[in-house]
Structures are given as structure tokens and as C-alpha cells.
Amino acid sequence: MIPERTFKCRDIQQAVKQAAHLRRVRDIQAIGCITVEMFNAPKCRVLSNRAKLPERYAHALKLLMNDQIDIPRCIRHTLQVIFQIYSARDTRDYVLPNKYEPVSSDGLPPPSPHQLLQSLINVIVFPSYFPKLYAFVCKMRQYSQLLSEAQLSCCDLQKRNEYIMKVAEIRVKMAAKDLPKILPSLSSEGLSLILPYLIELFEFPESAVNAAWYLTSPLAQALGPEEANKHLLPPVVKLFEAETVTDKHLKLFHRSFLLQLIVWFGLHKFLTFFVTPLIEGVGGYKEVLGRAQQAAEIVRKQSTTLKSVDISLGSEGVTSPCEEDSHSSNTELTLRMEAEEAGAARVEGDLTDAEAEAEPEVFVFEGGEEEVEASSPDTPMQDASDQLRSPLASETISLDEVSLQEGIGSIPSLCPSPHSPSMSGDEDEASSNPDTPTPLVSAYSPSSVSTTTGITIPKSGTDEMALIKSIGEHSTSLPNFRLEKEPHVTNIDIGEGNSDTLTATFRESENQDARHKMDLDHNMSDVCCESVLWLAGRLGPVLTSRYMTRNLLRMLTLCYLPDSGALTPIPSDPLDELSVTRKRILGDRYAAKVLHCLSEIACLYGEQVILLQYLCHICELVASCRRKLSATMEGGLLGAMALLQHLLPYLTDSTFMEHLQETLIRNAVYPVIRLLSSTKVNFPHGGTARGVLACRVIDCLFIMALRVGRGVHLMPTITRLMTAFDKCHSSSNQLGASPRSLEAEELLGGSEEGTPGGIQASPGSSTDSVKAKAIEELKQVLTPELAYLSYVPLCRFLGASYMETTLPNHDLLRSLCLQYDENNQAHHAAVLTDDGLAMNSSGTPSEELGGRRPSNRGTNVAVTGNRIDIKDAPDSVITPQSELPPSIGFATTVDISKYTGGKMDNTQRHLRGNWLAYWEHEIGRSEQDARFNFKQIKLQTFTGHTNSVKSIHVLDNENSFISCSKDKTVKLWSLRSQGDGNAHVSTQWTYTGHKKSVFGVAFSDSMRYAASCDSTVHVWDPFICACIKQLDSLRHSPVTVLTAMAAPSTQLVAATTDATLRFIDLRTCSYTHEFKVSMGGAGLVRCIDTSGDGRLVTVAHSSGVISVLDTRTGHLLSTWKPHEGEVLCMQWYKGGTFISSALDQTVSVWSVDDNKLKFTLRGPTEPVHLISLYGDEVITGTTANRIGVHTSVSPTASFSSTRLRSDTFRGVLTTMAVLPLNRLLLLGADNGTIRLLC
């Protein structure tokens, strides 16, 4: 007999099993409810937040029984299994069941979560790429877990950082290796799954640079321009705008990487986001800090960016320096942590031994030094190739052979950089300045630095002051000017006994720095300078002036900001013969590359760039300083004078003389002389800035004197400068101007007293205090040394008698020169003798005076007792300058022709004629004026086609375009500023593979392939000048229209004579599928266009019928006949809207959503057969050779029409293309010519 307890135990076990089974049933039913609610969220709002499972189950079952449109097809079968729906006519009650049938309709056991994920049963359909995607995501998660564990560890900080760097770079290496295998097969849904893991690589500081270098190109190609700008552009821009950069960042500013950014983000996005960091790199604001931990107070203050510089407002500021990123080493790195063994197993399981071992990367710059001039026509595709096509990382580098550990290898940062200790300022003092703008936030958080360089960084204020002392004493820079707002350069006094020791020490350090600089392949400013010049040669004059030179001119202000240490004296340049004062400051070193870029751009596009942009900038800035002189305006004024000094030798003699009085003297130099000699204004940085400005003005005047010779052109200006010494050294101590200086004031633009718009007193100060402080500044500046530096060379050049009769204070200047000579008897006792300056009074060779060789020439300057005699040359002929000591500034006779000749010999791309008129008009427009203003100015004529031009496609870089013609050829052209508007340009390359007239050409932005059509489709590569494939025409109907789908799609759409759309995949160069777009007598397909996302295609027929096709499903969404006549042209706009024109002389705007006419664009009186878009403006072309412009796509848009003149355009207009950034039109004619008009 079975005990009762046994029955009870069995009942309990059975109850437990039933409860467990019920729980599994409820779990799978809950999964089904959640899935339905996810895809039918709007229809599930009737459920309360606390709805029970039976209620939710009944509602979900009801939705599935009646409406499955919102449910994706891939999971419909799964939901049918979960909810036991066997047919659409199932009328059972919506009751929550407690169990499933033992065997389902598919012959499977009851559904369970494990069964749903079983790949063999295939209940849920997974895409074919899912295994690779899943493996990739698992690897990325493993590396992320390793990094998280490392950041939470408590081991040594240096070892932890090294381990993090190691894992981060291996993670990037793995991604760069696996992505080329995964991306081609991914759909948009699959790409969205791995995108967060890839974006994490760009945002993680330790892997950001390597991720940008290796992953930008393949990822942007897969995303397409729109998605790349949305997801990928922000982290890359953040990387470029980082204040703290390492040597790894160097390659990001090289033109090879910039070319990838132009290709995948578009030229407009590149110019908007990446030009500013590039210009900042030229000015030294992106200089590599080196691997040493540098004290914040001696790093150059990266106070402003180009975006924050507003010269009119005079804003300035400083920001706290940021430490550089951690740098990994090449040795094997270990970190003792709990997860070390597991982490190593995971890493080694994913990578081979060769891949896991980090090797130093060697980055080789491509192409060497490239000329800015245009490429030779003998190599037609070389120029187009390097501009238009950027290979993937997998095509250019083997990840198994090159490690991602080092960006540039082991380049030390020993070159003179903006972060040298001499650039420092007192941060507490500077940060209290109310004019400082908001600082640029660093892109990365500070991290430790484990390696050091050979730069010696002072540890205390004493060391820092000693360094500044050595620089200030032993340079031939400034005459003891004091920087009032910089405590570390005030009250500097070095004993005479230490002079020789400090000189030797400084020269030795300079020689070491020079040797280190020679050992470096590149630094950041060099790479940025090279990239700027490379861009300038390809952007054309308008884009270069609009985006490059404007920012370079603004960058000069940053280079001379006093708070960044720009006023610190440095040794003079022995090769600079055009500086009479021989005074250099640290700002000159900052601005050297900026001035070089500006001058090279001027040499490329001609001296009109100097006259109409550079000199205008100088004159406007000088005029602004007369109204308000802030610290930023002070730096801008110094930069303007440095630019003027740099540009004077570049002007031709005729141009120089033409603009000497009105522009150079009246608007530039003379107002600056009035400003620096004024007692009504105080300089924000006192006598130091005023003294530097005085030296710049003297240098500019002497270069002008060298070019003009003796004459009256410069004497009023020289007189105004020299009479300023009366304000400090006049015997009567009168501050009034002499009669001759007043005459000069009246001659050159009014007097200083009470002139409207003249110099204003500093705000917030009384007139007496301003005058007293200004006099103190003038006493610091107008010293005997400055008189000696300016008066003696001018007397030698112009003659003593002439100077004596011209200058009212001639005796005062002589006495100041004598005083300076008496004060320097120990060094310059015999420098003004007639024996050629062989020895000084102490017997020291002349090399100690600056390394200058003595001269045997005579001189017209002599010392007689305590008197200086300056003799005139015989017959009033000016003798050439003899060698003078360093204090005077001339080492040898200056041959000005050596500096003025040959600067602009290559005139091929100089602006003249119509090109100059177009450029001047464009740079004169404000940045807010973006309207298309058609002036009908002919710029170039492209000849080569012998029959009617049928189609033109402009590449997105706007310096190349492709055309096709009835002459059976397709040609590639280069757009460059050449000639005066009447130049005829020949083709760069011709594709001759067609046997019939070519009527269509398209370019795939994703694959970078071109396709042309003559009833058969030819796919060819314009960068290697080779045909890839000619598609078979025998198996298919003839093609009538061809277009390319927008990136990231790799497909072409071809319309055939049987009203069928055939899709061509450029990856395989074969037809993939086709859709029928007309079932009746709609006629031939005349034109097709695709939406920006590639989902819709509009098709226009010869009968006036228009169809809209969904490319995802192949369904015809709508078909209607909007026009009475044949449709001539169609252009997709945006937001489900497109524009069409027909023979009925209407231009209509249609909505795809409801197939209704939105409105008609009024204006054209002839049939419009060409439509192009420029932003929101519509540009049309008619058969009567009229170009029309609608200001917007709206019923109230204004319309303007221009008939093409016969001298501008000959023939009948057949095709048209717009260059949106340059605001130009390419017009093709029936006679085979193509003309570029603005």
C-alpha cells in the first residue's frame, strides 16, 4: 500500500513542473506582446501603464489578426508561432492560453526563447552578415571591458596609462582589419548596430587619432555624406580643434588625410570646419608640445582662436594650457590586475602574434614638396587623381606590418615652437584682463606624460626670469623696452661682466636648437603650411581668398598678441637685410609661416591679391585703431606693419609708385606714425608695444626709401616721424609740433588736434593722466638708440644736407646720435671711422658685432672730436650704403632689386581681365550675401568637342568636370584661373570607347567611378584613365537615360526604351534587378531623378506622364499626367518635392505624398529644358538662350532673366551645370564649346 505522503510528494512535484511550464509559457507570451507593442506603439496607447498580461495579450492578438502592416516581414512568422495564429480566418477568442500544443504546425516543439534564436530552425530570419557582425561586436565589447577594468585598477599610474594605450591601439587595429570585410555586406540596420562602437573609438582620447586616420575613409564611404556629417563629422572636428596635440596629430593635418575629408565630407563642410584649425596650425597654435610635462605658466597661452578674434571689438584672452595625451612606448607592457590573464587570453584569441606585437609606425609623407602651380598637361590625370580619389586605408597600408602605436614614430619636439619658455606670461595677470574671450575647451581630458624631451623647462620663477634675461640682453632686438603687464620682463638688469658668458651660452643653445630642428622631418606648422599652399592651388582664387587668406590675415593678430609673449625680444636674423633696426620679437617667429603662406598665395594669383585684399586689410585695421586701441587691436597693428614690411618687395615698380602716396603712406604708414607719437592715447602694453611698432615703421620707411630713392615722396612722412623726438627731448619741453610737421599733417590728411575720427583718448582716464603716461611711453621709445637707428641710415641714403634742410629738429637728432655713441664707447668707439669698420676701440674683431664682415669702402659718416659729420656725396649723387655695425642694421649694400625681382615670374594663374573682375566682385560681397548673381562675365572657353555637348557633370571639388558629346567622346576638364577671360583650355583626358553619340554621363560619389551612355553603359575610372567594363547591350533594351544614386548607394539607374528601370551595381559592374515603370502608352522615358536618400525615383515620359517608384519595394507609388506636352527636365528638390518643366512652358513644383501641384514658378516665357539648383534658388535655361533665376522655391519667388550675349556665348544652349561654392555656370553649346560664366 502506497503511503499518503508519497502521493502528496508526487502532487507537489507535478505542481512544481506545471508552474515552471506555465512560467515558460508566460515568458514567451510576454516576449510576443513586447514585440508587437514595439512596432505598433501608436496603436497600443489605449493600454494603461498597469495593464496585466492577459489584457496586453488580447490587444496584441487583435492587432495581429486584423492589421500586420507595421510588423516587419522577418518577424511575422515568429509572432504567428507565439500567438498560435494558423490562418487569417482564425476566429477564436482573445484569451490568454496556459499551454501550447505539443507539436506546432511547423512540426516543432512548443516555442521557447532558445528555439527562436536557433539558426538551424530559422524561426527569426537573420541576415547573412549577422555572424560576422556579432563576432565584431563581441570583440569590441571585450576590448571595452578591458579598458574599463584598467581604468578602475589601483596600480601604478604610468603602467596603467601604458596598458590603456596598448589596448586602445590594438582595438583600433582590429577594427581597421575587420571593417573592410564587414562593411560591404551590411545594410543600414546592420551599420547602425556597429556604429556606436566605432564612434567610441573616435571619442576615446587614446585611440582618437588612429581611429580617424584608419577608419574615417571606409566608415564615411559606408555611411554616405549625410550620415557621415551627422555621426562622424563632430568627433573628427573635435579632434582637429583640440588645443593639446601630440606628434600623432601631425598626420591628420597632412594633405593626404585632408583629401579624404574633402572627398567624404564634401568641400563645403571641409571649408567650414577644418580650415580654421589648419590656419591655427600655421600660426603655431597647434604646435606639438613634446613629450615633457610642461609648466602651465611657461607654455604659450593659446588665448584665442580665429573664431573668437574680432578686431573691431578688440577682444583678447587666455586659456589654461592643457596637458598632452598619454603616449605609449614600444616595450612590452604589463599591468598586474585581477583580469590580466583573462584579458590577455581574449586579446591573443583575436589577434595573431604578429598583430599583437606593437611596432613603431613610420609615417612617410607622400609626394615630397609639391609646387603650388598647376600640373603639367602632359600628365592629365595626375592632378585630378590626387584631388578626387582617396584610397581606403586597407588599400594603402598593411595593418599586419605597421603598428598604430606611434603617429609619426619618435619625432622629438625640440624645434623652436610657440610653446617655448620665452613665450610665457603671467597667467594671473593676463587672466584678469576684462577683454579676454571665452577659451576654447580642450577636446581631451589631461593625462599623464611618461616621456621627456631635451627641452629644459625652468622649475621656478627665478629660472624663468634668467632665461628671459639672457634672451633680452644678447639679442639685437629692442632698445630696453619694458613690458608693463609682464612682470617677468621688467626691471631686468644683467651685469657687464656676465655678458660674454651669457652670450656664449645663448649661442650654444641656439646652435643646439638649430641642429635639433634640422634633424626633424616636419613640425606641425610646416605640415599645416604645406597643406595650406596645396589647398590654395586647388581651391581657386575666390575660395582661397574667402576661406584661406581671410583667416591667415586674422591669424597675424593672434601671432602678435602681447599676452601670449609675442613682445619678448629674440636674436635678429642675419639674413634679413631689409630691416634697418634689426629688432625681432617672438611674434615674428610665430608669424613667419603665416607671412610665407600669404606671400606664396600672392605669387600664385598675382599682386592684385596684395592690393585689393592685403593692403585693404591693413588700411581698415589701421583706421580701426584710430577709433579704439585695445590689446587685440594692438597685436593686429603689429601684425599689419609686419605684413606691410613683408609685402613691399613683392610689388612691381609701377604698382609701387602708383599706390605709394594714397594707399601706402596716407592710409597705412602715416596714421601709424601719428598713433605711435600721439600723447592722447596709451598703448595697452605701454612703451614695449609702442617701441616695436616704431621699429616696424622705420623698417617700412627704409624699404620705401630704397625703392623710391631721393625725392619728396617720403619726406613729409619722415619729417612727421622725426619731429616726434621733440616731444621727449625738446629743450623747451614743449609738446607742440613744429611748423614743418604741421605742414606735413595738413598735406597728408589733417592735423591731430580735433580731427573727426582721429585718435581718441583712452577711455576711463583723465586727459592729464593719459598725456603723462603717454609721455613716459614716448620716453621709453624715442631713445637716442632709436634716433641713431633711423637718422644715420637716412642721412647716409638721402644726404646730410638734404636732411638738414628738410628736418626742423636736425640738431636735436644729431645730438641724440652723439649721445648714443658716447654711451656705447666701450663697444662702438671706432665704428664710424673711414677705415671700413675693421676693429672697434677694444680691438675686438668685427665678428663680435654680429658676425658681419668688414668693408673697405669709404663712408660719408665720420667722427670729428665729439661731433658726427655726415658728408654729402659728390654732385648730389647718392652713394650706396657701406657696411654699418649691427646697431645700424646694414651688413652690406642692400640691392633692393634682388628682393623685388623674380617674385612673381610665373604669371600663368595671375588674376587679370575678367578673372580679376569676378574675383574682386566675390571678395567684396558680405558673408551673408549668398545670392546667385549672374553677371554674364566670360571666364574661360573649353574647346575639344566637335559636336553638340549633351551633358556636363561637375565634381564636388569644383576644380574638375566631365562632359559628353555627340562626337562619341567623353572628356575630363580641369577648372583653373588662367588668362583674362578669353583663354581657350584644352581637355585633360578623353575617353574614346563609345561607338555612338554619347548623351549621358554620371559620377558615383561612393565608388568614385564615372559612367557614360550611348545606348550602352560604359563604366570607367577617370583617375587611372581606363575602362572598367562595357555592359552587354544585346541582352537588354537600349538605354535612354542614365543617372547615379546618391551616396552611400553604389548603384546606377538606367532607363530603357521599354519603360523599364534597370539597376547597375558598380561593385560588380552588372545589372542586378529591374522595375517596370509604365504599363500603357506613356512613351519613352525622357528623364529620371532620385531623392537625396535614394529611396524614391521620379520618372518622366515623353507623353507628359510622371511616375514615382519606391526603390525598396519596387512599387509604383503614383502615376499621373501633370503636363500637356512632353516633359523636358526634372529636378528633385527636398522634402518629397520635385520640380518639372515641359513643352507647355510651365515650371511646376509637385508633392510626392499626394501627387498634387503645390504651385507654379512664374516667369519663363519659353520652354525650359534645363533646371539646376543653387541652395533654395532655381536656375533655369531655355531654348532661346535665356538664363533665369528664381530666388526661392515658393509661389512668391522673384524672377530675373538674362539673355546670353553673342560675344559671351555662341550657339544654342544644350546643357548647364552650377558650381555652387564659386557661384559659376558651365554652359554647353551645340557647336561643341563649353563656357565658364559668372
Description:
The protein has a domain at 8-125. Mean pLDDT is 74; it is low at 290-299, 312-521, 731-738, 751-758 and 828-892. With 1238 residues, it is an alpha+beta fold.
Question: Which key terms come to mind for this protein?
Answer:
single chain, 1238 residues, alpha+beta, five-stranded mixed sheet, four-stranded antiparallel sheet, WD40/YVTN_repeat-like_dom_sf
Question: Topology of this protein?
Answer:
Layout: H1 4-39, H2 53-66, H3 73-82, H4 113-116, H5 130-151, H6 157-182, H7 188-203, H8 208-240, H9 255-265, H10 267-273, H11 275-282, H12 340-350, H13 353-356, H14 380-388, H15 393-396, H16 427-431, H17 461-474, H18 499-519, H19 524-559, E1 569-570, E2 584-585, H20 586-605, H21 608-627, H22 631-647, H23 653-676, H24 686-708, H25 715-722, H26 726-729, H27 739-747, H28 767-781, H29 784-798, H30 800-806, H31 810-823, H32 825-828, E3 861-864, E4 867-870, H33 896-900, H34 913-923, E5 938-942, E6 949-954, E7 960-965, E8 970-974, E9 984-985, E10 989-991, E11 1000-1004, E12 1009-1013, E13 1017-1021, E14 1026-1030, E15 1039-1044, E16 1051-1056, E17 1060-1065, E18 1070-1076, E19 1085-1090, E20 1096-1101, E21 1106-1110, E22 1116-1120, E23 1127-1132, E24 1137-1142, E25 1147-1151, E26 1156-1160, E27 1168-1174, E28 1177-1182, E29 1186-1190, E30 1199-1203, E31 1213-1219, E32 1224-1229, E33 1234-1237
Parallel strand pairs: 5-9
Antiparallel strand pairs: 1-2, 3-4, 5-33, 6-7, 7-8, 8-10, 11-12, 12-13, 13-14, 15-16, 16-17, 17-18, 19-20, 20-21, 21-22, 23-24, 24-25, 25-26, 27-28, 28-29, 29-30, 31-32, 32-33
Helix pairs in contact: 1-2, 5-6, 5-12, 6-8, 7-8, 8-9, 9-10, 11-19, 17-18, 19-20, 19-22, 20-22, 21-22, 21-23, 22-24, 23-24, 24-28, 24-29, 25-27, 29-30, 29-31
Region (Disordered): 408-458, 730-767, 836-858
Keywords: WD repeat
Biased composition (Polar residues): 444-455
